Amino acid sequence: MVIERSHIMGYCNGVSHVIEMAKDCLLLAKEQNLPAYSIGWFIHNPTVVKRFQDAGMRHIDAPEDGPAGIALIRAHGIADPLRDRFEKAGFVLIDGTCGTVAYSQRMIRNADPSVHVVIIGLHGHSEVTALSNVWDEHQQVIAVHVVETTEDVDNLPDFNSDKILLMVQTTFPQLQYEELRKHMQARFVERLQMGNRLCPTTFRRHEAILNLCKIVDAVIVIGGKMSANTTSLVHLVADKGLPVWHVESASQLPPQIFSFPRVGVTAGTSTPPEDIEAVIAALEEGAT
Ligand code: SF4
Q: Of 194, 223, 253, which residue constitutes the final position of a domain?
């Protein structure tokens, strides 16, 4: 079996940044003899999260979940009202929000109040939650509409003759994004203003996996099952009609994979290099 690696896979800048912030959070908590927390999963990868949990970082969702301490904001950002609640409860916050997501939040915060904000994104995704809970200057949450399907777009109100700012969850699957963007343009025409874009990191990964699909017989995608960008890689491969498996670790490799002559490997943006190498080593070992 020949193993072909995608030429872009694994950590993006935002994930590398929040991992450094997580180390700082643990260090500061130790120095100040305070508990260390992450607010939600700071990235969608169970191996990395567990490593930090083992080092003493506790996962909480609200300030009531534990005594005040040092708390890490995840790469996907945090809702403004929740940030405020943590600060008022005496927590010191270490901001691991990816710069690309922080830019999207600023764009919503600075939008003209007469503009209606529509976000293309997955309902309930933590980045979408952060973008849906941005405060204006009066500490009021700016109303947004989240659309995930063309039916959601059809069900949007007409917004009278007002302008609409179109935002997107930075890791939303590219093909669906293009479809929804065109649907929005067809419905709202010149009233539509384009806001942020997909994260270029995600875009380049999508291009790389599509190129890989041209030369392999099956694909292994490595990454957390909760990771939206990893799942979108799986969908891209499946759309090309190739057999594809989403694994979090080498132990989840399916036995059938060893029957394919050429296997492609890619990984989501929150997959650590050691997980990628372990899967590739297991593929190499099983192929001999
Ligand atoms: S995928 Fe892009 S937006 Fe998301 S954390 Fe990585 S760099 Fe930031």
A: 194
